[in-house]
Design goal:
The chain crosses the membrane at residues 49-73, 94-113, 133-151, 158-180, 200-224, 245-263, 343-363, 421-446. With 508 residues, the protein is mainly α. Helices cover 60% and strands 0% of the residues.
Length: 508
C-alpha cells in the first residue's frame, strides 16, 4: 500500500518545467490515492469476509455438539440435551453481547478485565468490527456446550440457564482477556511487549482458553451432582450406560471436524497479510493452510491411535471411542496449530489419544460420571495441547504469527529454552484455579437450593417425558401392546453385574 503513495513535489522534477506540470503531478497523485483507497477497502472486505466465514464454521460446531450429545445420551433424554444446546447459543448470545465481549476485549483496559464495548457501544471501531464479535461469541458458546455434556441426563433446566449465562458472560471472557487481549497479562500479543517470561502464553485457538475452561467447569459440575443412577453398581463397579445412537455421534463428530477449520485456521482473523519474505507466494494465507494441515493430522492420528489402543485394551473396534479420540486430538492441537510443523502434530495427536484413554480409566476408578467424556477430552487433552506448544513451537512460525519481538522464546524441544513452557504451565494452573473458584460456588449453591439435579424418579423416567412433554422418538417396551405404527426401540435395563465399557447395556 505504501508504494502507491506519492507527493506532487516528488513528481515535478520528472515532469520538467512545462506549464501544466503541477496540475499533472496533482492529478497523478490523486489517482494513486484513489487506487490505494480501493485496495485498502478490498483488503478490509476480504479479511472481514474471511472472518465471517470462519465464524459461520465455528457456529456450525454447535450443530455438531448437538448431534454428538444427542447420540451419547439415552433416548429418553434426547430432547433435553438438544434443548440445552439451543440454550447455550441463545443465552450465550445475550450474555456475551451485554457483558462478555466487553470483559474479554474491551480495550483500553487493565491486565485482568476489559471495560469497554458493553452492549457493543461505540461499535464498530478501529480495533474491532462486528465480524470479530460474532467470531468470539461462537467461541464462547463452544465452551458452554462442552460443560453441558459433562452434566447431561441429570441436570435441571434452570441450572443450564444460570450456568450457561454465567460462563459465557463472565468466567470465559476473563480467561480470554488474559491470554488473547492486547492488554491481557499473559497474552503473547500484548501491546506493550511486557510479556510473561519474555514470551507470553501461546494458546492460539484455545486448548486452554476454550477447551480447558469448558472441561474443568464440567468436571466440577459432574462431581457436585454425582453419577447417574445405575452408572455404578452397589459394589462400585462400572456399568456402561451407552448412548442410544452411534450414527448421531459420527454425524456430530464430522460436523465438529468441519467446524474446526474455522476454529483453528480462522483464529488468524485476517488472510491478506504478507510476511515480507522473498518468497512472494508465501504469506499468512500459507500459514492458514499449514494450520489446517496440522489440525487434520492431529485429529486423524488421535483417531487411529484410539482405534487400535481400545482394540488392545477391550477387544473391540468401537466407533464412539474413535470419535472421541478424534476430537481429543483436535482439542490438543488447537493451542499450537499455527506454530508447529505437521510432523509435530502427529506426535500431539498420538499422545492426546493416550491422555484421553488414561483419564477415562482414572474417571472409572474414581467413580466419576461424564456421559460425553467432556472433562477428560477437553480438559485433559486441552491441557496436554498447551504443554505440547511449549515443547514443539518452531522459532520461524512463532515469529511470523507473533511478530515484533526478535528473540522471543519458542519450543523447548526445538531449542528455544524453557521460558515458553513455563508460561504454558502458568496458563494451565491459572485456568484451573479461576474456573474452580468461580464455578464451584455456583454449582454448590444451585445444589443446596435444589436447583441442580432432578429427582431420582424423573431421572429414571427420563427428562423428555417428565420435563419436556414427551419423547424425542416414539418408542415402547418389547412387552407392551402398542399399536403405534412408529419406529420401535427396545428398552434394555442395566443388570447388577459388571459390564465392560465396550458392551452395550443401555437404557433408552
Amino acid at each position: 500500500m505504501d508504494s502507491l503513495s506519492c507527493a506532487a513535489s516528488d513528481l515535478l522534477p520528472l515532469l520538467g518545467n512545462s506549464p501544466n506540470a503541477t496540475a499533472a503531478a496533482d492529478f497523478i497523485c490523486n489517482r494513486f490515492a484513489a487506487v490505494s483507497t480501493k485496495l485498502f477497502d478490498a483488503r478490509y472486505a476480504i479479511d472481514n469476509t474471511y472472518l465471517l466465514f470462519s465464524a459461520y464454521l465455528v457456529f456450525a460446531m454447535q450443530l455438531g455438539f448437538a448431534m454428538l450429545c444427542a447420540g451419547s445420551v439415552r433416548a429418553k433424554n434426547t430432547m433435553n440435551i438438544m434443548l440445552t444446546n439451543v440454550l447455550d447459543a441463545a443465552a450465550g448470545g445475550l450474555s456475551y453481547y451485554l457483558f462478555g465481549f466487553a470483559f474479554a476485549f474491551g480495550a483500553p483496559s487493565n491486565g485482568f478485565i476489559g471495560r469497554h464495548f458493553f452492549g457493543l457501544k461505540e461499535f464498530p471501531s478501529e480495533l474491532f468490527d462486528y465480524s470479530y464479535f460474532l467470531y468470539q461469541w461462537a467461541f464462547a458458546i463452544a465452551a458452554a456446550g462442552i460443560t453441558s455434556g459433562s452434566i447431561a441426563e441429570r441436570t435441571q433446566f434452570v441450572a443450564y440457564l444460570i450456568y450457561s449465562s454465567f460462563l459465557t458472560g463472565f468466567v470465559y471472557p476473563i480467561v480470554s482477556h488474559w491470554f488473547w487481549s492486547g492488554d491481557g497479562w499473559g497474552s503473547a500479543a500484548k501491546s506493550d511487549h511486557d510479556l510473561l517470561f519474555g514470551s507470553g502464553v501461546i494458546d492460539f485457538a484455545g486448548s486452554g482458553v476454550v477447551h480447558m475452561v469448558g472441561g474443568i467447569a464440567g468436571l466440577w459440575g459432574a462431581l457436585i451432582e454425582g453419577p447417574r443412577i445405575g452408572r455404578f453398581d452397589r459394589s462400585g463397579r462400572s456399568v456402561a450406560l451407552r448412548g442410544h445412537s452411534a450414527s448421531l455421534v459420527v454425524l456430530g463428530s464430522f460436523l465438529l471436524w468441519f467446524g474446526w477449520y474455522g476454529f483453528n485456521p480462522g483464529s488468524f482473523l485476517t488472510i491478506m497479510k504478507s510476511y515480507g519474505t522473498k518468497r512472494t507466494y508465501y504469506g499468512q494465507w500459507s500459514a492458514i493452510g499449514r494450520t489446517a494441515v496440522t489440525t487434520t493430522l492431529a485429529g486423524s492420528t488421535a483417531a487411529l491411535t484410539t482405534l487400535f489402543g481400545k482394540r488392545l485394551l477391550v477387544g473391540h473396534w468401537n466407533v464412539t471411542d474413535v470419535c472421541n479420540g478424534l476430537l481429543g486430538g483436535f482439542a490438543a492441537i488447537t493451542s499450537g496449530c499455527s506454530v508447529v510443523e505437521p510432523w509435530a502434530a502427529i506426535v500431539c495427536g498420538f499422545i492426546a489419544a493416550w491422555v484421553l484413554m488414561g483419564f477415562n480409566k482414572l474417571a472409572e476408578k474414581l467413580k466419576y460420571d461424564d456421559p460425553l467424556e467432556a472433562a477428560q477430552l477437553h480438559g485433559g487433552c486441552g491441557a496436554w495441547g498447551v504443554l505440547f506448544t511449549g515443547l514443539f513451537a518452531k522459532k520461524a512460525f512463532v515469529n511470523e504469527v507473533y511478530p515484533g519481538r526478535p528473540g522471543r522464546p519458542y519450543g523447548l524441544f526445538m531449542g528455544g529454552g524453557g521460558k515458553l513452557l513455563g508460561a504454558q504451565i502458568i496458563e494451565i494452573l491459572v485456568i484451573f484455579g479461576w474456573v474452580t473458584v468461580t464455578m464451584v460456588p455456583l454449582f454448590y449453591a444451585l445444589n443446596k437450593l435444589n436447583l441442580l439435579r432432578i429427582s431420582s424418579e424423573d431421572e429414571m423416567a427420563g427428562m423428555d417425558l417428565t420435563r419436556h412433554g414427551g419423547f424425542a422418538y416414539i418408542y415402547h417396551d418389547e412387552d407392551e401392546n402398542s399399536n403405534l405404527p412408529q419406529f420401535k426401540m427396545i428398552r434394555i435395563e442395566p443388570t447388577n453385574t459388571s459390564t465392560p465399557d465396550h458392551q452395550s447395556n443401555t437404557t433408552v
